[in-house]
Amino acid sequence: MTGDVELLYGNPETPGESFVMRIRELPGTMVPPHTHPVDEHITVVQGTWYFAIGSEYRPEQLKELKTGSYAFAPAGASMFGFSPDGAIVQVHGIGPFQIHWLHGLSTLDDKDAATQFQFARGARVRVGTRTGVVAEGYRSGDITQYEIEATDGERFMAEERTVQVQ
After folding, report:
1. Which pTM does this prediction carry?
2. Omega of the bond prior to 96 within 30 degrees of 0, cis?
3. CA-based nearest residue to 146, from 111, 115, 112, 106
4. Rounded Cα gap, residues 48 and 64, in angstroms
5. Using CA atoms, how far apart are residues 95 and 120, in angstroms rounded to an integer?
6. What are phi and psi for residue 162, nearest 5 degrees?
C-alpha cells in the first residue's frame, strides 16, 4: 500500500531466503487486515506504530509500539496497523513474503476506480487545515484512504470521510 519499502538484506520473494526490509509508513496510514504466509518479526525503528492481530480493523485492539518495540506475527495470522504520525517499521522473515488483503485491494488505477472512490488522482482537496492533491487512493473492505501530497510537499494519508474538495 503506502510508504516506501527499503530492502536491507535478501530477497523477500525467494523461498527459504532470509530478508530484512524497512517500511516507511506515512502519517495517517491505516493498514487494513491482511495475512502473510511467513512469520514476521517486526521492530519499530522510528516513530510509533499501532499493531493488532485480528481479521477486522478494530481501533480499540491496536497496541502502541514505540521506537525500539518488537512484535511477532505468526504465518497466516490476520493483522492490521495504524501510523498516526508516520513510522519506520522493520520486518524480518524468511521468504516468500506476500500480502493477502482479506477484503481485496482497489487503487485509483483500477478500471472501476470511479465507482470505488469519491476523489480521482490530481483532485485538489482539503483535510482539516491542510490542502493538497490526491496522489493515490486505496480501498480494502470498509477502509478507503488517500495518499495526499500537501502544498508543502509532504505526503500523508487521510480516510475518505475526512477529505473535502478544496
Report:
1. 0.91
2. yes
3. 106
4. 7
5. 35
6. -100, -5
Domains assigned to the chain: 4-101 (2.60.120.10), 106-165 (2.30.30)
In tens, the pLDDT along 45-96 reads: 999 999 999 999 999 999 999 999 999 999 999 999 999 999 999 999 999 9
With b for 16 or more beta-carbon neighbours within 10 A and e for fewer, the 111-144 pattern comes to: eebeeebbbebebebebeeeebbbebbbbbeebb
Longest dimension (CA), the chain: 49
Beta-carbon contacts of residue 153 (< 8 Å; ≥ 6 apart): none
